[in-house]
Amino acid sequence: MHADGDIVAGDKIVQHPAPRFAPPARQLPAAPRDFVGRALELAAMDEALASAGDTAGERGSATVVQIHGMAGVGKTSLVLHWAHRNAGRFDEHVFLDLHGPSRNAATPARALFRQLCDLGLAAGDIPADEARRAALFRSLVAERRVLLVLDNAADAGQIVPLVPGGPGWRAWSRGSAPCRSRSTRSPPTSPARS
């Protein structure tokens, strides 16, 4: 093998390009302007992740925290405000709008495809089936501390395949109704202005 990555076999040279990886993801939308109040909810979010972080390493798994409530109460603004305030704690910031229960809801396979492309993989290098995409995604991000914001989640079926198992992962799921999952915590929300 040459230093440039070419593999020499007999009289043939096989070029094996190095994988290309994108820079760390910084996908959070802009922080909400004129965000006021919600001190109790922000404190509950901090506490939910702090207490989850204490046990995540023991479990060896990611932590999913869920924000749910009526439409229009400012759930997305709340999560984005918290995410921007805590961005420095994470290597990457991923934002996915899952489009909730609409006809255009993002399937886990489609969301994983987008995430793998964002990591720098070429479309032709991404497996066709969801399970292999999820396994590849988990392998590529296993050692990173990632904040994952899943907006407009319809149910746990949209969330679970997108959350790798590593303890450095923290995911905020935002939807109108709670999604039942073993690793999910739900701090309180109220219809306060944000």
TrEMBL record:
Residues 176-194 have a biased composition (Low complexity). Keywords: ATP-binding, Nucleotide-binding. InterPro entries: AAA_16, P-loop_NTPase. It comes from the Bacteria. Residues 172-194 are annotated as: Disordered. Residues 35-154 form the Orc1-like AAA ATPase domain. One of its GO terms (molecular function) is ATP binding. The keyword Transcription regulation does not apply. The keyword Transit peptide does not apply. This is ATP-binding protein. It comes from Actinomadura darangshiensis. The lineage of its organism: Bacteria, Bacillati, Actinomycetota, Actinomycetes, Streptosporangiales.
